[in-house]
Fold each of these.
Amino acid sequence: MNYQSDEKGYYGTFGGAFIPEMMQQNISQLQSCYIEIIESDSFKEEFKTLLSDYAGRPSPLYYSDRLSDHYKAHIYLKREDLNHTGSHKINNTIGQILLAKRLGKTRIIAETGAGQHGVATATVCARAGLECIVYMGAVDVARQSPNVEKMKMLGAEVRPVQSGSKTLKDATNEAIRDWINNPVDTHYIIGSVVGPHPYPDMVARFQSVISEEIRIQLKEKTGRETPDYVIACVGGGSNAAGSFYHFLNNPEVKLIAVEAGGKGVDTGESAATTQLGRPGILHGSRSLLMQTADGQVIEPYSISAGLDYPGIGPMHANLFKTHRAQFLSATDDQALKAALYLSQKEGIIPALESAHALAALEMIEFKPDDVVVVNVSGRGDKDMETFLKYFQSVK
Ligand SMILES: *Cc1c(COP(=O)(O)O)cnc(C)c1O
């Protein structure tokens, strides 16, 4: 079975490029040249150097004594939280800014939800000396003010989006609109494995450094390259795609994707796309999508702004459909508890998104010899206000 995209960007029946006429030029350009550019020796060299010297890679693979004790298995944490700007997002933005430079683009646009992708984009634009405009739902602008301030300090312009639910989906629509109006000088840095072909494949390739490193690090530590489990949270799916990538063709490695259950999958306030969604088209690709009977997008909900998206990338829709990955969901409460537990047992405050992956440790029955890798996609600094509110309310 092939779990990668074909040359038209299809993962089984999911993916493709469903775009308005006006976007055709930009997308065709990318489709025709992205592989040649990003697989060239000079690109790879520059990408690798920036990942190490600028972003701080490789991120450590840390053996957690205390989680291992508690869950009765060998638990390793992949520390994407230690990357520059605090999450895995920087892997993708470094790759895409190098691509934009090679395409001669001078203006960068991006969408952001929690602001992590916005900050990572503003960061690489500052370094590259390119103009940067970040679209962000007005609701998210209000609830993620530290990241808004960071983007501004980095020299980016943050444009609040007032349409729809004023969150990530609406910011994405606005970024697409901008690109249609500025087809020549602008590159759109999408923040996850979503959007029209070639974005899902391109972003997955940039994030695949995560599983590339896991294989090497695990070999050094345990003598074997493959774990029994890889666990990652899924918003659009980029950190999960990166964590799974080099294990897709090792069927003995169980891939666990954890969605945001919100207040509970059946409460109407959830973002568990594989459980609640049906096939449909959103933001240029065919995937699973939370929608009403007549195809209107249902507003997702999660306490974590990074998982609050009504779709998932087409690679994940296919992994779900083919049962190559198992999809679980963690509620707000389960994620908050997992975040507190990791903080107090290991001294690591994870991002709320990553805490969903950690919560899955409670749901799986491990064997004592199992080797388990949990991707800690980001750090929790941005979530302190949410954490404090919760811990006050449970006291
Ligand atoms: C953005 C974000 C996510 C969700 O995005 P994916 O594309 O699903 O990885 C998860 N964790 C962190 C820390 C994030 O910033």
Amino acid sequence: MLCSLWTSWPWILLVPGFAMGWTKQSSSAQTDIRNCSMVPPFLPPTVTATSTQLNALRQLMQSYNISAYIVPATDAHMSEYIAKRDERLAWISGFTGSAGTGVVTLKNAALWTDSRYWTQAERQMDCNWELQKTFWTDAIGEWILQEIPVGENIGLDPFLFSIALWQDYGLILQNSNRTLVPIEDNLVDLVWGTQRPPAPTGKIYLLPDAFTGSTWQEKVSDIRSQMKQHPRSPTAVLLAALEETAWLFNLRGDDIPYNPVFYSYTLLTASDISLFVDRNRLTAEALQSLSAACPGPLCVQVEDYDQVQAKVRAFTQGDVLVWIGKEYTTYGLYGVIPQDKLVESIYSPVMMTKAVKNTKEQELLRAAHVRDAVAVIQFLLWLEKNVPKGSVDEFSGARHVDKLRREQEHCQGPSFETISASGFNAALAHYSPSNISSRKLTVGEMYLSDSGGQYLDGTTDITRTVHWGEPTPFQKEAYTRVLMGNIDLAKLVFPAKTSGRMVEAFARRALWAVGLNYGHGTGHGIGNFLSVHEWPVGFQSNNVPLTKGMFTSIEPGYYWDGEFGIRIEDVALVVEAQTKYSAGEQAYLTFEVVSLVPYDRNLIDISFMSEEQIQYLNTYYQTIRQRVGPELQRRRLEEEYEWLWKHTQPFSQGTLLAASLSSLAATSLVAALLPDSQT
Ligand SMILES: *[C@@H]1O[C@H](CO)[C@@H](O)[C@H](O)[C@H]1NC(C)=O
Ligand SMILES: *[C@@H]1O[C@H](CO)[C@@H](O)[C@H](O)[C@H]1NC(C)=O
Ligand SMILES: *[C@@H]1O[C@H](CO)[C@@H](O)[C@H](O)[C@H]1NC(C)=O
Ligand SMILES: *[C@@H]1O[C@H](CO)[C@@H](O)[C@H](O)[C@H]1NC(C)=O
């Protein structure tokens, strides 16, 4: 799922010209339909009235003696997806996009967001809010300096800003005679009051052993030994990201939509473990597992979630060294630890360890992808039958694929909001249909479906683009080149510890060759029943080097604004490659694609493809048959089984024959190629 790849600022920061170019193109067609100079203003019906909450916030700001208040779109754990009760920016501004920053002064209010969200922001915000079409912190700072006179204060909640972002604001305001004031009471929450959605109360449960890579005790011991081996021998690790704690203790909850995590922090030392969480929400079984070895070094003390700051402050009075990952720790928490007691790395050792899946975790993720392929194949077949009848729209399509996934064993729901986009809607980067605005699927247009599931054994994410009628030659070429990029990266052999950033151009090469490109990242890590975007794995500049055992998506695309959009996304495991020579100390690496759904034959023009690419595709199709075929048979999904067979016929080099081979001939051809196949 690409949505948040645009949100991954560092990638855009590296390629600003490119990203901005893309941005202009897609925004030029849109203009603000609000007219704030009319009396009364002209506003679309989708805006939220914000005068009441802004007035209340401004009164509060005056009593706190601040002239501006900054409202970000994240939570205290730097989560990508947030719970309703953390949607402060949406509540104060009306804007519900996942990335943005609001600044409220005593007179004005402005919202900064990136191009994905400009149209949405103009349709959601009333005239109290001006839209700033950029996301750079510098631009926000400049605006603040213009609006706020010398000598006045700018307030923010230190628990909602990463260390780096806080420091950026500090730098901008340095020597400007304005002061950045940390205010621990969140002013939006104070205004929101009893209207604010309550803290979640859902159960926090233990993931059954069958679905975990190792016991939580083994994971704790591993992190402890990493502490010992660290040159500075930190005495504690402080975990702030929600997926870190969930992974470490093999616990899951449902505090945040699409992400099975729960509000928590962890402080781990050589002799103690403190888990900061609402104790009442732990199941009896979870509590029992955490406290089975009490007292002792494998005894988990459950402490109040709200106590983390006080506990860390008290703990750091002693002779200790606390290891934190800067990317996910807020300035608020960081600030309570004296500077000389900090060991900082970009990511915590838990984040780094979680990124590399062990053999069992790899097997679990592979298994989840087989069941996920069944759901997607059922969906593609259903579309083939129903789109020509004119009975499917984007919204009903999205609901149907979600439903098919939920019917699979171990499925707990979708892993993100399904993207289901027909025709020109697919050219919008971040398009999810609603029941109000939903385009009908037709045989005359391309359709893009990007969806994923949360299964107890793994998180999935796959994109397929299809056309049921007659695609134009350009559509076929663009699709084929996107596919070639996907294949070129997936079959690449590269040295161990190569950074994803260094190889991602392979996914673009076939597009670049003809002057085409796409304006988003090429992939992201993915979890075992955790986040669909699992950093720090992927192809962006801020991602860690690729290592055996990591999973990443590979998702090139092509988007023609106002016309159509193409994306082909698979999840792949980094594995050792078989190379002719082995000169280096470490084996070279390559990818094993674990998503198992064929591409759309109707959009493939193999005359663009090399022999190796075709060979690769045929081998991949054999794998799909071998792995998904038996599952379809086991489930007695006869029609789907036939569909799979038809859609995984091997392509033969340089001929149009493949397309016209009868399925009988194709079947026997495969039987010949594949002595142990299921034929
Ligand atoms: C807004 O409305 C005013 C007053 O009717 C009009 O003069 C102006 O052109 C409108 N602006 C836009 C951008 O439509
Ligand atoms: C408000 O803040 C300004 C700037 O820091 C300070 O000079 C002033 O004394 C403060 N006023 C109150 C009432 O605290
Ligand atoms: C900040 O205040 C100091 C002392 O009042 C003054 O000398 C300086 O010029 C001011 N700087 C700015 C940027 O206003
Ligand atoms: C559209 O969805 C919203 C929210 O899910 C729901 O309240 C509303 O009834 C739906 N409208 C229609 C026409 O289905």
